[in-house]
């Protein structure tokens, strides 16, 4: 996995969640708090999720084969989607079930200092993990807002870790509130309500992750900045006079496919066109290094043919960007 995959953030989150899961489960055994049980399962599920992200990154590094000629870059999207399923089923649904049972059959907390101490420790550990994820994300986020970064990021790992850590911190606050109210009122129902809120939170986060990774699995185009760089790199103003139409597709977070029909002059020789295409491919790779699979098809731009086409984008002639007469 490349640095942009947020390996450091994943490893930090994995270490924190394993330690927290053990501490929460011990607190549950001593106190009987359903919030603690739900939180321990949540942390255990998060640990498994980070393992899935690391496994997906490893599998994505496999070389292309005749059966998979574009490689395995999308493995990272598949494993990120599995994370959302695990978070929904193991984390969210289990917490809702535990919360319902606790509300239906409440009982007082025993050894209250165990869950309170563990929750304070978990908040500190998750804060450190969250800070690492934020620091790694800021290297790539640029001027994007956090919501824009999560929606537009092509590498799924950092958005997953960010949302998981955020959900974990909010869940810990909810658990601490539930335990605190249960202690203050002597009514264990509050512990169950806190657990129920944790479950709802995890399901909402899982749905957001599922929607974002589904879009990546379906295939997303390059970002607007990269598209502009590619368009600028293709046209040389001499042999390549314009772009008739172009399509881009992420084969993986760090691998982009570029397919374009380009406009060339009608009196250029085949050798001149081939040389211009090679030069255009080199310029594209210099401008956007992740553009590793490039197909450029030369054509003679015709304004009349473009105007007559039922669908100009699909017609053989155009429309051409920067082409003469357009």
Keywords summarizing the entry:
10 helices; Alpha-Beta Plaits; Alpha-lytic protease prodomain-like; 2 domains; 65% helix; transmembrane helix; 326 residues; mainly alpha
Please describe what this structure looks like.
InterPro entries: Cation_efflux, Cation_efflux_CTD_sf, Cation_efflux_TM, Cation_efflux_TMD_sf, SLC30A9. Residues 11-218 form the Cation efflux protein transmembrane domain. The chain crosses the membrane at residues 6-30, 77-97, 112-134, 160-183, 189-211. This is Cation diffusion facilitator family transporter. With 326 residues, the protein is mainly α. The protein has 2 domains: 3-218, Alpha-lytic protease prodomain-like (Up-down Bundle), CATH 1.20.1510; 224-308, Cation efflux protein, cytoplasmic domain (Alpha-Beta Plaits), CATH 3.30.70. Helix content is 65%, strand content 10%. The chain has helices at residues 7-31, 34-59, 75-104, 113-141, 146-152, 157-185, 189-218, 224-234, 270-287, 303-308, and strands spanning 240-252, 255-264, 291-300. It has a 3-stranded mixed sheet with strand order 1-2-3. Strand 1 and strand 2 (255-264) form a beta hairpin. Helix 2 (34-59) packs antiparallel against helix 3 (75-104) and helix 8 runs antiparallel to helix 9 (270-287). The longest helix has 30 residues, at 75-104. It is elongated, with a radius of gyration of 26 Å. The model is unreliable at 314-320 (pLDDT under 50).
- Mean pLDDT, to the nearest integer, reads 83
- The main sheet orders its strands as 1-2-3
Rg, alpha carbons: 26 Å
Q: Identify the CATH architecture of the largest domain.
A: Up-down Bundle
**Shape field:** elongated
Number of helices: 10
* CATH class value of the largest domain: Mainly Alpha
As residue ranges, the low-confidence spans are 314-320
Strand-pairing-aware structural class: mainly alpha
* Number of structural units classed as domains: 2
Largest sheet: 3 strands, mixed
What is the fold named in CATH at topology level of the largest domain? Alpha-lytic protease prodomain-like
Number of strands: 3
CATH homologous superfamily caption of the largest domain: Cation efflux protein transmembrane domain
| Amount of beta strand | 5-15%
Order of helices and strands: HHHHHHHHEEHEH
Percentage of residues in helical conformation: 55-70%
**Separation, N- and C-terminal Cα atoms:** 44 Å
Organism: Streptomyces physcomitrii
Transmembrane segments: 6-30, 77-97, 112-134, 160-183, 189-211
Biased composition (Low complexity): 307-320
Subcellular location: Membrane
């Amino acid at each position: 996995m490349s640095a942009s995959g947020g390996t450091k953030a994943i490893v930090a989150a994995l270490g924190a969640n394993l330690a927290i899961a053990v501490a929460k489960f011990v607190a549950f055994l001593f106190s009987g708090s359903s919030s603690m049980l739900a939180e321990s399962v949540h942390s255990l599920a998060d640990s498994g999720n980070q393992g899935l992200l690391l496994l997906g990154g490893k599998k994505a590094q496999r070389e292309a084969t005749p059966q998979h000629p574009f490689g395995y870059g999308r493995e990272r999207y598949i494993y990120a989607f599995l994370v959302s399923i695990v978070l929904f089923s193991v984390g969210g649904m289990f917490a809702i079930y535990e919360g319902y049972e606790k509300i239906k059959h409440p009982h007082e907390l025993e050894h209250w200092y165990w869950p309170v101490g563990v929750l304070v420790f978990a908040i500190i550990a998750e804060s450190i993990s969250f800070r690492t994820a934020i620091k790694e994300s800021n290297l790539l986020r640029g001027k994007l807002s956090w919501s824009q970064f999560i929606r537009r990021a092509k590498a799924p790992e950092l958005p997953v870790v960010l949302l998981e850590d955020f959900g974990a911190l909010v869940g810990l606050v909810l658990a601490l509130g539930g335990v605190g109210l249960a202690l203050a009122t002597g009514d264990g129902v509050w512990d169950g309500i806190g657990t129920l809120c944790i479950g709802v939170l995890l399901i909402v986060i899982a749905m957001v992750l599922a929607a974002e990774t589904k879009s990546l699995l379906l295939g997303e185009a390059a970002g607007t900045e990269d598209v502009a760089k590619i368009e600028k790199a293709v046209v040389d103003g001499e042999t390549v006079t314009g772009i008739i139409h172009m399509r881009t597709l992420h084969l993986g977070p760090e691998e982009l496919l570029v397919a374009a029909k380009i406009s060339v002059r009608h009196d250029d020789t085949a050798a001149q066109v081939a040389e211009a295409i090679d030069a255009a491919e080199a310029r594209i790779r210099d401008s956007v290094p992740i553009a590793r699979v490039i197909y450029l098809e030369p054509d003679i731009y015709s304004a009349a043919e473009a105007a007559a086409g039922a669908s100009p984008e699909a017609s053989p002639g155009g429309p051409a960007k920067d082409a003469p007469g357009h």
